[in-house]
Amino acid sequence: xxxxxxxxxxxxxxxxxxxxVPDVARAAEGMGYESLWVFERALFPEPAVQxxxxxxxxxxxxxxxxxxxxxxxxTLAAAATERAELGSxxxxxxxxxxxxxxxxxxxxxxxxxxxVVAGFGTGWSHDEYAAASVRPFxxxxxxxxxxxxxxxxxxxxxxxxxxxxxxxxxxxxVGPKPARPIxxxxxxxxxxxxxxxxxxxxxxxxxxxxxxxVAGQWRRLRELAEERGRTEPIRTVLRVNARYRPSARxxxxxxxxxxxxDQIVEDLVAHAEIGLDEIxxxxxxxxxxxxxxxxxxxxxxxxxxxxxx
Length: 309
Fold this sequence. Notes:
Shape: globular
Largest sheet: 8 strands, parallel, barrel
Distance between the termini: 9 Å
Structural class: alpha/beta
Low-confidence stretches: none
Order of helices and strands: EHEHEEHEHHEEEHEHEEEHEH
Radius of gyration: 19 Å
Mean pLDDT: 96
Number of helices: 9
Strand order of the largest sheet: 1-2-3-5-8-9-10-13
Helix content: 25-40%
């Protein structure tokens, strides 16, 4: 069976959000993309003392200076489409009040006819935590645990009752309810995060770091699931942050998904062979505007399908 393909929605400053998000969403659904995705970047520290992803010396990309709110972006896409799933890869859980996020996701799922996929992570930016988090950076795991529990409670039957560190619901009716159970997917890199995923989530959101790397991560996750007695399947959606470079060289030092359309598709083929359910292709940082983004998305989709992805 062919790997499902998703597309990252335009959230960066070169796009006209009110016009381009619905336009790209409609076009992507028409091309055959089966899902539409957002990411979260709350701010851009100036100067950025902490490196990107917490890696010392790695600069933040300039496009992170202006990233639209992920839920607003998904809402614009939901209103313009009919079939495509609407996912987050990822929402940084500790930057959100759990009850409010749970209700917003339920409302979006109800409005879209059951198309939301809730992808969560703990984040890494100390500056974002200082500005917006509901728990300290050291408590990011506990914040994610509570968010998942609150979502399950709010999305479940009434009366809703929950007694947590941040959230206390004595007994209440909370609506609207999602149109169907919203799948919760996690970006899990550490051992503790993988255990949280196996025990409490529906799926996994890896990054396209190279086919061998992802295959090894997937193997370890399946082994952990077997050790912990999980019988439910783990849904997998690989995030690919592609960089279109028409004149990129063909050499061993080329980063995965950095290069021409043909090179990006070659990497898609290698990652699809791992056996993951879906690949999310984010091309927005490579495009000058929505027209170029749609053109790149169409080329990648057509060539990927022709190559058997």
